[in-house]
Amino acid sequence: MVKEMIVVEGRDDTAAVRRAVDAETIETGGSALRAEVMERIRLAQVKRGVIVLTDPDYPGERIRRIIREAVPGCKHAFIPRELASKDGKAGVEYAPPDVIRHALAEARAETLEVRPRDCVTWENMIDCGLTLHPQARKRREAVGRALGVGYANAQGLYKRLNAFHITPDELRRAVQKLK
User: Fold this and answer.
1) Are 71 and 41 in contact (CB under 8 A)?
2) pTM of the prediction?
3) Which end of the chain is more exposed for a tag (fewer CB within 10 A), N or C?
4) What is the pLDDT of residues 70-87, one digit of tens each?
5) Is the dihedral of CA 88, 92, 93, 94 positive or negative?
6) Hey, which CATH number is domain 5-109, 3.40.220.10, 3.40.1360.10, 3.40.605.10, 3.40.50.300?
């Protein structure tokens, strides 16, 4: 059984998670997070911990951002769009159980504390070809998948890498695996 409560968007996501693992979920009911849902997420974070597992699309990222700002310290699990798609739609409900299990196992806690000595710099991003490179988007997709932090544009990935305390060495190792 997964100790943490898993935050998902809806009933179909809950069903997919329960096919993969024994876990309890909190359903957001979409991107308009009601006050009582946010309160349940806050309480769950204090009592058991929370893993946010939203769809790999804009509304999913919006929900993740709202929760991140309101309830610090939650873990975040990411499923790549290509592993959670069916008929042009992307969602947790389309991900196979093994993909969901892997995403939950790789969930990372995001913190706001700064670790200046071992944080990723913008120069690291450039050196690794994650920005200002003809294949930067594809490289960010692959690195985000390898590190379990999901896809983001250059600025978003930069923030995510530091929020999840990914070191420059971890980043370089992930990039080397691309070659």
Assistant:
1) yes
2) 0.80
3) C
4) 999 999 999 999 999 899
5) positive
6) 3.40.1360.10
